[in-house]
Amino acid sequence: MKIAVATDDFKTVTGHVGRCNGFVVFEIKDGKIANKENRENNFTNHHHGNHHHHSNEHEHNSTHGNLLSGLKDCSHLICTSAGWRLQEDFTNNGKQLIFTNEELAEDAAIKLFEGTLEINEEGSCHSH
Length: 128
Fold this sequence. Notes:
two-stranded parallel sheet; 128 residues
């Protein structure tokens, strides 16, 4: 199982996925972290300073396509918040977007695997 965690410092869980600096990807085998990989966020337009494309649906969809492609080997993405379009795109692509207030990325990944991660149902951003 591979779990991605949105992060700004490659240690803690961060908020809005489109604006994060990167993702920590944990591969979990037999209940333990078998591999950890840091991936820079080169997948989203928000990260590159393009915050004004929400009126253009094609642009927004291609942004999520890049993100989904960049995390294609991950079954889950943990973050503190994300927009509803990203939630929809993840669901439509068979991936789970998980919101939590857990602070440490590694703890969040392990707790998700164990089924003990506290889920924050309020993590959805409806402003775009």
